[in-house]
Structure formats: structure tokens, C-alpha cells
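Thread: Modeling a multi-component assembly for a lab meeting

Hi all, long-time lurker, first post. My supervisor asked me to bring a structural picture of a complex we are working on to next week's group meeting, and I have zero experience with this. I have the sequence lines for every component (408 residues in total). Could someone generate the structure of the whole assembly? Inputs are pasted exactly as I received them:
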Amino acid sequence: MLNIPALEKLVHELSRLPGIGPKTAQRLAYYILRAKGDYSDRLVDALTRVKAEVHTCPRCFNYTDADLCKFCTDPHRIDNLLCVVEEPADISRIEASGAFRGRYHVLQGSLSPLEGVGPQDLRIKELMERIDAGLRGEGTSIKEVILALDADLEGDTTVLYLTKQMQGKAVTLTRIAHGVPIGGDIDFIDDRTMGRALENRVEL
Amino acid sequence: MLNIPALEKLVHELSRLPGIGPKTAQRLAYYILRAKGDYSDRLVDALTRVKAEVHTCPRCFNYTDADLCKFCTDPHRIDNLLCVVEEPADISRIEASGAFRGRYHVLQGSLSPLEGVGPQDLRIKELMERIDAGLRGEGTSIKEVILALDADLEGDTTVLYLTKQMQGKAVTLTRIAHGVPIGGDIDFIDDRTMGRALENRVEL
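Re: Modeling a multi-component assembly
Sure thing. I ran the full set together rather than chain by chain. Output:
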């Protein structure tokens, strides 16, 4: 770098972003320096506003700028259907499908013994409290919990853990289907996906 | 997106960075939200410091946080050798080679009639003034100007334009060599590079 501490600090901070290496970070820093108008100011403003306004919803742990998020407050959504996701970003994907009109619960991650992420690091206690409150008749009664977790080792571990936690509770626990993607070519499907697709075949 | 204006604004601003599409911008915004510690604050601080401290060197138009950049003030560099580059980032590449110990001049771009970039948009006038001042005996006398511009259409156009501007001046004008890269496999070299490598062959 060019021996300019301020510029080196910016490159260092940018290179901490996911998928941004030191070379890309340097390119971004140069772009920010060269950008016409008040781009740098607007970026600072956007970062400051997000920090000041956006927080997690105390009920479902999605992001929101209000007391509760829009999915928790929407009166037109089905109360007794709860979809559990890993990250707030997953909600957009599920909403885009248009196939779910219930409420959400964001775990804020998935169990990973390898990376030292245990149940206490996720919003599992809060999920159980939501379900138990409904069973006690104190909160909204939940009939079905749909697990929409990633189809990887961490997702599978989390599904196993939650299944154990839910045992004995009068709540239906389901997991979204895994199989051949729509438009997917059978030729190119990996073994594990094909195995799951055969195992979970649907009667016509 | 999740109907959170502050978050949408941050995604919009991030997606203006080069190589960052809307999906990546959303991922970066979520990372910034989730990041532990005061990452967002440190990013804001870095952006603010760069804006406050970093400016272009009034002599060579490289970035600096001092009155003149470190290449213009370094007493150990050769005064009468001037290397012309397009962007400040190019200087790092040339410095890393260790093969050049003269001064620099940053054009801040290259001529592109297609994108409406003309000579008045670049630091060409300032380059000519530096050379002319030396010829008049007022500034540092420059013996050789090395053009280290990109080997693309814009770079070639700029080389042609500068060659015309320098005609009749008692200064040697050179361009860095283009040819097969060191470690490059002859099999995989494109036609134009091979053409240039043959044309500019060096006697052994």
C-alpha cells in the first residue's frame, strides 16, 4: 500500500467483509476515494442509520426498525404456524415463494460443534418459550413448527437437536422437503440429493 | 427486502461499489448488522478519516495525506525519470517490481472517446507543464518519460495522444514492453500479445 495510514485502515476494515479479500478491498477503497459526489458521506450515513434504527425483533429475532417486526405484527398471517429459519435473509427467500403465510422464528445461526456454536448461542430457548407459552394457553397457540434450515451438517445437527427438544410436546414438527430442484436436470443431481428425493417420494 | 428503509438504503449504497451486485450487497449489509463488536463504527470511522485526510498530491496526483506524496518528496529517487500511470493503484504494482526508482505522474484515467473521456478530463495538462518547466530550466529537468499505461484500447489511445503532444520536445518517450508474461505458457498466449512479443523481440 501507499503508506497512508487512513487508507490502509479503510482497506483493512473492508477486507473483513465476507468474500472481500485484500485486493478487492483495495479496489473498493480506491473507488470510494475516486467516486464523484458525496458517495462516501452517503455510505457513512447509511451505516450510521442502520446502526441507530435497525435491531432484532424481541419476539422472532428478525431485523426490524419498529418495536416488533412486520411479520409479527401483520394481522393477516396465520398465528399457529411457525417457520424456524437460521438467518433473517432466509425469510426473504421463503416470502418470495408465496407458499407460507404463518409467523417466523430466527435462530440466528445453526449448531456447529466444530466451530463451538452450542444451543445457548442460538435463539432456541426463546423458541421453546414461544411454543410452551402457547401450550400453557398464555401466548398464541402453535400447532405446527416448520424447520426451514440449511441442508448441511450444521442444519441437520440443529434439526436433530430441536426434534429432541420438542419430544412429548403437542406440536407437529416438520422439515421442508429436500429433493431435485424444479428445472433441475436428473443427470447433474448429486448422490445425497437423489437419495433424499427417492426416500421422500410422494404418491401421485 | 424486509421493508426496513435504513437497511434498504445501506444495500443500495453498497451495491454501487464495483463488482458488488444487489445480492452481495444484501449479504454484506447483513454481515455488518450481525458483526460482533463495533465493526460498523470502525468502518464509519475509517471512511470519515479517509475523506478528511486523503487527497491527491498536487504535483503527481497520487493519493497522499501530506502536502506532497512520499514519491515526490523522497530525496533518494531519480529526478529526471518520470513514469506516467493511469491510476494510483498502478504505482504499487510498479513499486513491487523494484525496477523503477524515478518519479511518478498519475493521469487519473485514460482517453476514451466512447465514454466521453477527453484530454481535459485527465492530468495531461499538468504532465506537460511538469515537462515544459524542466525544459525551461524552472523545475526538475526530465530526460525520459515512461508510459506505463494499460494495454487496452484506452491505453493505446492515450499513448498515441501523448506521443503527439511530446513531439519536438527534447525528452525521450518510452512505453513499457508488452509480450509473453514471465511463467506464461506460449500455448495459451492470445494472438495480439504474441504479435507484440514477436514485433518487439530483443536481440540476445
